């Protein structure tokens, strides 16, 4: 098969906790993670992906398997052809591939061995850099060679220069469970019990307005709950809006007068049983100049508490139980599943996405 590792597309699986959305952008890395000339191996949706940046500064992504003998291309090196093109050379036999995935040379061929090496390809993934973030488009069709018909989201509140906080952690869970845990509004008093946040004894009835947003939904801008003490460090009268977008992006945009804080959480499925959580915070608020170590420590504690709960939850999930979800506290989880089904159906049918979320006020106690 001259096209090497490219295989037929598979239909998406949408049973909760199985399969992944395709024809969509996934967060892969921070732009600063990709250094010119450095080849880096990632795994997304169970597929090995080489992410790199040319010496000219262009980011690219290829399937990280040489079609000759399956060596990881990321273990090779970035070099140049005689015409100046930058190419990836496999470490095993030196086969070379352009950043478009096409083979440019097989060094072991001799002069009278006619072979059109350009017909040999590795899968290329479209890449976008936006606001210091790197997104990779995962198509349902591995043969896809064009450009996506949608762009990654643009986030409000990317201010103050470089991120004030970046934290990463791998959860031993499918992305569906990670997403539902991320948007769950009722676990805070039990999982996150710190003096500077809230306790199980400090619970109040909440009523929050939600509305549909592009490929997702938002808890519309409101004053933070009175029992969420962490907002007090911002002073003034903070307002916050929390947005979710498939496949796994959640951001909280806080404004205090002209000052802003953006807390972005990106969920990237590594495999069926592992999801990478990347927490990124930008701000131009003075509190981050003086209290950054304390804010960073608090954010890390939150993430690890969630990770500990995921590990505990896995003790029950290994028996594949049915899950009982309620209104209104679990409505966001239900919306997530509806959004996934509609995205998959729209892409399959070749029609525009129609957001199934309707405006609503949800009530819960936390």
How many strand units?
Answer: 19
The structure class reads alpha+beta
Distance between the termini: 58 Å
Order of helices and strands: EEEEEEEEEEEEHHEEEEEEHHHE
Shape: globular
Specify the oligomeric state: single chain
Q: Please tally the helical runs, counting DSSP H or I stretches of 4 or more residues.
A: 5
Our estimate of the beta-strand percent is 25-35%
Question: Mean of the pLDDT scores?
Answer: 89
Share of helix, binned: 10-25%
What strand line-up does the widest sheet have?
Answer: 12-18-17-16-15-14-13-19
Our Rg estimate from Cα atoms comes to 23 Å
Major sheet description:
8 strands, antiparallel
Plain-language structure description:
By secondary structure, this protein is of the alpha+beta class. The chain has helices spanning 175-183, 188-191, 287-290, 292-317, 331-349; strands at 24-30, 39-44, 47-53, 59-63, 77-80, 86-89, 96-98, 103-105, 124-125, 127-130, 133-138, 165-171, 205-213, 216-222, 239-245, 249-256, 259-271, 274-283, 360-365. The strands form four sheets. Strands 12-18-17-16-15-14-13-19 form an eight-stranded antiparallel sheet, covered by helices on one side. The radius of gyration is 23 Å and the shape is globular. It starts with 23 loop residues before the first strand and ends with a strand. Mean pLDDT is 89; it is low at 5-12.
